[in-house]
Amino acid sequence: MINCLYFRCAGVRLLHLLHVYLVGDHFRGLVHFVMKSLSDYRLSEKSAAVLEFPLTKLPNGYEPWNTIISILPELYRNGSLRDYVSKLPLLSVDNLHSHVELRLAHKILAFVTSAYVWLKGETDKPKSIPAQLAIPLIETSEKLGLHPITTHQDLVLGNCLYVGENETPRLIHAPTHHAGWKPFIELGGRIEIAFAPCLPAILKAIDAQNPLDVDRITHSLGQISKVFESMSECIHLLYEQLDPREFYVDMRPILSGWSSGLYYEDVTGLSGDHPHHDSGSMWELFEICSKFSSQREEEKNRLHWTKCGSVHLSTSC
């Protein structure tokens, strides 16, 4: 069920439309095709897929979740997270109605769950996720169309405070105490924001295909190429500021999901008791560009993106 809801993710809905329009044969014969506005896909001309106004706290009634996310790095550092989680109450997500409330709830639950699972590494990985995390995590995941793990939407897109154009956004929450999260998340957000001017240019280029307007398409492609120059500067900053050893040894496990499967306590309706979820961290901007250019990447190209992009960790949502 979670996999079927993949295309309900706002940015991915745009990717799906781009793919169908540019690649899908059954769309070729249409005389008129009108793209919706960026806001319909929860995208912004200012911040791209990064939320312009993310919440930092959930409303009254969710104090236990607000508290645990605020002290999560310390709980992870001192090894007391699992004991703390065992005392958490089971909260319903029924009182969370807005998209930004659900996004924050998913981020909190995903961060805590990932930290809970990988607290002691592979040597002492739990066999199950406790109900007070599992039930609301699955429910928010279904409402948002996200996997019940730490996704790129949690880590970066809903976890940066937008400051302004050409400015590095500010980190809201870190999954653990490791210093590398700050440059990884903030510069990841800056790269996403730097991509924002590409979005209207892509829509204009699509619109200019029918009727064909070569000059307009050429101008749009020129705008897109300039944006990639500024994005490359941000990637170089990421290389400079992120300690590779800390990332691969201490941070990456938090992004790794659980490929061997875990039991979600008291959760019904899942396809199997031990769902498998690989890494959920992925940059939508790379996928948007891929769909726009009608490219179907070979496996070797995916490996190339992994090396050059530094943060394209998986092909999962």
From TrEMBL:
Q: Name one GO cellular component term.
A: cytoplasm
Q: Which family does it belong to?
A: Belongs to the indoleamine 2,3-dioxygenase family.
This protein is called: Indoleamine 2 3-dioxygenase
- One Pfam annotation reads IDO
Q: Which UniProt keywords apply?
A: Dioxygenase, Iron, Metal-binding, Oxidoreductase
Q: Which organism is it from?
A: Clonorchis sinensis (Chinese liver fluke)
Q: Which Gene3D superfamilies match?
A: 1.20.58.480
Q: One GO MF term, please?
A: heme binding
Q: Which GO terms describe its biological process?
A: 'de novo' NAD+ biosynthetic process from L-tryptophan; L-tryptophan catabolic process to kynurenine
Q: Which PANTHER family match?
A: INDOLEAMINE 2,3-DIOXYGENASE (PTHR28657:SF5)
* InterPro entries membership: Indolamine_dOase, Trp/Indoleamine_2_3_dOase-like
